[in-house]
Design a protein that fits this description.
The structure holds two protein chains of two kinds. By secondary structure, chain A is an alpha/beta fold. Chain A is built from 13 helices and 17 strands. Chain A folds into two domains: 21-219 and 301-470, Alkaline Phosphatase, subunit A (3-Layer(aba) Sandwich); 225-286, no CATH class. In chain A, strands 1, 4, 5, 6, 7, 8, 11, 12 and 15 form a nine-stranded mixed sheet that branches. Chain A is globular. Helices cover 43% and strands 4% of the residues of chain B. Classes of the chains: A alpha/beta, B mainly alpha.
């Protein structure tokens, strides 16, 4: 027999008790398209109605971007003190090293805005919007390798098979529009090779499959199978759909079947999507201001910048959750060179997106999240010089930031030690972040549940606490 | 070989799931609420297997027949087919479940024989037309007053299209195959460093394109979209029942996916070749192939009128006709007039998208 730890056991029953009483809540929250949001049915007044999650896959190095650590300088090429590492687990990529020499960042840091947030020279545009951001420097996670870590970040579980955050939100909040999916995902082309992504990162797990993210592609037809095949014109396609629906309606007369009437409307929607989806990706109608904000790269479909712009266009059309994945942050070697490339690809468009949302009055009720699955080590992986170094995965502390609806802009929460190795104050676990994100959307993370394999599940499993300091 | 390795590995509870945090040592066993393992047997996979199919085991036969029932009726007698525990649903027909379970054991676990029993039953052979009363008092049809209407699975929809088009390769067994898939799908998500798939998706050619969907190569990180769109599970966790959603993406796949266009051309070819010169006879033939019944006069009128329009479109634009019948790797029948075949391909595309085609019964 398994003896559960008594605290875990008690927590489990307490939480599942809460969940039991509210399992029916989720369907009630579903909004009718076009109708006023059913905010009265939410657990809290929502501070944000929409989300853009800018996932930086691979693990950006916090001490080269936001977590300024001048003390590292005097430890250059000296071993990371044992008292700092404290016997903590390493990945097999560096656990065999004889030495763990400290690598100070080669990049200059400055303080920006009224908030005086520290940002490295790699991110000049993000530095320019520092007062709109809420930095969390004490994020920590459980996993030390990419696959479990990014799966944990996106689904609240290292093991595959749980619903992604976007799927939970689609399930809990429903759709804001009738012509586009609730949850859209985009991946961008990168200059550096990246870690693979997995469909599960936007999957619906055990939730109904309609809640999974729909990926808008950067090449070819934006949505799979959207384009008519060669030799079928739009007129012929219309004719075929008309005939299919005419014959389906004949059947409907004999048999009032709701599935059948849904099918008829889905064929109409498919036809409309053939026009409405390309409109999102065809950005020729954007004013000159757009390219100034996002950069010229945004004209290249499939780039991170173009995806940031698409994200705004999708939100304008009623998509609730847009998830961007940008790969290539995994610099075990040549970090200074390759982080620079990564920042060139992402910095301007990220900041441009925030400014654009603000100018359009959308930032107030849109939550923007920036971060990767973990951070990187202060010690060097491989050969260390003044100009060049690599860094291994580091789950014990890293930086993420938030902007927009309900977020305490111009603040920094949490702190790390002098080596950016351990959390020194106010730790924020991924479950805490997810609980806080749900809270901003008006959801109590304890009460958004789904029954599967004999128990109720949540995005935050049996963990998570809302970090109220992050809320405005 | 593991079977020859007599050394048994010690197993521990891992504290908080951490691989390096060993807790209490544990041994194999079965839940106390179920019958014990045979007393004298060694605890190994053989004794576990014997325990599972012991006729006194209360669960195995019931769970099995319930899944077979679910396969044919869409919903099991126990709705929560994955959960027969205290949190599961109560069976709608407990006596029937028990009887079927006993029959399965009697039939020596012959699941074909049990399914024959199910599909030849009066309950299964009912019309799918619900009565008004049934709709009012039992909208979920748990009492089985009529036969269910179920959208076919993605695999069956594709296999059926291949079958009616004459493209299906019925060979059994062999390694997985890589049928058509939109270009660059793998590279966009996981390329180019994933060493196992460094070359990206290497689509097969020839017969491999037309084998049953169960042979489709399954990469969990990026499953084949044609099956995913029709609720194929991700295979990351075990599930015993699929959903049946109804989405515009399904319409787009059925209308535009290469395999369904190629299948439409195959079906169009059969309509022209198998039923003489008469358009009406050809359309009747095609309609019957996909639905198993004759078209009504209204349906025939719709299809004949559109056939004429398609014939005109493709006669006036031979390039368009050549493009349409050129979709897919198999060669079109060059004895047929391209514009005629293209027009019938468009009609067959219509037929393959009918609700009745992708729905059972």
């Amino acid at each position: 027999m398994i003896n559960l730890d008594p605290v875990t056991r008690r927590l489990f029953f307490r939480n599942s008790g809460i969940a039991l009483g509210s399992a029916a809540l989720a369907p009630l929250l579903r909004e009718q398209a076009g109708a006023t949001p059913a905010t009265s049915l939410l657990h809290f007044p929502p501070r944000a109605r929409r989300v853009i999650y800018l996932c930086q896959s691979g693990g950006p190095a916090q001490m080269d971007l936001f977590d300024y650590k001048p003390a590292l300088e005097k430890h250059f090429d000296r071993d990371l003190p044992d008292s700092v590492r404290n016997g903590q687990r390493l990945t097999t990529q560096t656990s065999g090293q004889n030495r763990f020499p400290v690598a100070p960042s080669t990049f200059k840091f400055n303080q920006y805005g009224q908030s005086g947030a520290w940002v490295s020279e790699l991110m000049p545009y993000t530095a320019g919007i520092a007062d709109r951001l809420c930095f969390v420097k004490s994020v920590h996670t459980d996993a030390i390798n990419h696959d479990p870590a990014i799966t944990f970040l996106q689904t609240g579980s290292e093991r595959p098979g749980r619903p992604s955050m976007g799927a939970w939100l689609s399930y809990g909040l429903g759709s804001l529009n009738q012509n586009l999916p609730t949850f859209v995902v985009m991946t961008s082309a990168t200059k550096t090779d990246g870690q693979p992504l997995y469909k599960r990162l936007w999957g619906s797990g055990f939730l109904p499959s309609r809640h999974q993210g729909v990926r808008l592609r950067g090449t070819g037809a934006p949505v799979l199978y959207l384009d008519n095949p060669p030799g079928v014109s739009r007129t012929t396609r219309r004719q075929i759909i008309d005939d299919v629906n005419a014959m389906n309606r004949l059947r409907l007369k004999e048999d009032e079947n709701p599935e059948l009437s849904t099918r008829i409307s889905q064929y109409e929607l498919a036809f409309r999507m053939q026009e409405s989806v390309p409109e999102i990706t065809e950005t020729g109608d954007e004013p000159a201001r757009t390219w100034k904000l996002y950069g010229e790269d945004a004209k290249h479909r499939g780039s991170y910048a173009a995806n940031c712009l698409q994200a705004r266009r999708l939100l304008e059309r009623g998509v609730r959750f847009v998830q961007l994945f940008h790969r290539g942050w995994d610099q075990h070697e040549n970090l200074p060179r390759d982080h620079q490339k990564q920042c060139q690809d992402t910095d301007q468009a990220t900041a441009g997106l925030i400014l654009d949302l603000e100018e359009r009055g959308m930032l107030d009720d849109t939550l923007v999240i920036w971060g990767g699955e973990f951070g990187r080590t202060a010690y060097c992986q491989g050969k260390l010089t003044r100009e060049n170094y690599g860094r291994d995965h580091h789950p014990r502390c890293f930086t993420m930031w938030f902007a927009g609806g309900g977020v305490a802009a111009g603040t920094t929460y949490g702190a790390t030690d002098d080596f950016s190795y351990n959390v020194a104050a106010n730790p924020v676990h991924i479950h805490d972040l997810n609980a806080t994100i749900l809270r901003l959307l008006g959801i109590d993370h304890l009460r958004l549940t789904h029954r599967f394999q004999g128990r109720n599940h949540r995005l935050t499993d049996v963990h998570g606490r809302v970090i109220s300091a992050l809320l405005a | 070989m593991i079977m020859e390795d007599s050394h048994k590995r010690d197993t521990f509870i891992l504290k908080r799931g951490q691989y390096d945090q060993r807790g209490q040592k544990v041994t194999a066993g079965v839940p106390r609420s179920l019958p014990p393992l045979p007393g004298d047997a060694e605890i190994n996979r053989l004794s576990l297997a014997e325990w599972l199919v012991d006729p006194r085991h209360p669960l195995t036969a019931r769970v099995t027949v319930n899944r077979l029932w679910q396969h044919h009726f869409g919903v099991g007698l126990v709705k929560s087919s994955e959960d027969f525990g205290v949190q599961g649903d109560f069976p709608s027909h407990p006596d029937l479940l028990d009887w079927l379970a006993a029959e399965l054991i009697q039939l020596k676990w012959d699941i074909k024989a049990l399914q024959r029993l199910i599909v030849t039953s009066a309950t299964y052979r009912q019309s799918s037309q619900p009565s008004l009363v049934a709709l009012q008092i039992d909208p979920e049809n748990r009492l089985l007053s009529h036969s269910p209407r179920l959208r076919l699975s993605g695999e069956v929809i594709r296999d059926q299209a291949l079958f009616v088009s004459g493209l299906l390769v019925e060979r059994i067994g062999g390694p997985s195959v890589k049928p058509y898939q939109p270009a660059n799908l793998w590279n966009e998500i996981a390329g180019p460093t994933t060493s196992a798939y460094a070359k990206g998706y290497q689509q097969d050619t020839g017969d491999a394109l037309y084998r049953r969907s169960l042979y489709t190569f399954w990469r969990r990180a990026i499953p084949h979209p044609g099956l995913q769109i029709f609720d194929g599970p991700s295979r990351e966790v075990c599930i015993s029942r699929r959903e049946r959603t109804n989405t515009p993406l399904q319409a787009l796949a059925l209308l535009n996916d290469t395999i369904f266009i190629e299948a439409a051309r195959g079906l169009g070819t059969r309509m022209i070749r198998d039923s003489g010169e008469n358009d009406t006879a050809r359309i009747r033939h095609g309609f019957q192939l996909v639905t198993g019944r004759h078209p009504s006069p209204e349906e025939l009128t719709i299809l004949l009128r559109s056939l004429e329009i398609h014939q005109r479109t493709y006669a006036n634009n031979r390039d368009l006709a050549a493009e349409l019948i050129g979709v897919g790797e198999s060669e079109p029948d060059h004895n047929l007039t391209a514009s005629e075949l293209a027009a019938y391909t468009a009609i067959a595309n219509t037929l393959l998208n009918l609700d009745e085609t992708i729905t059972r019964p």
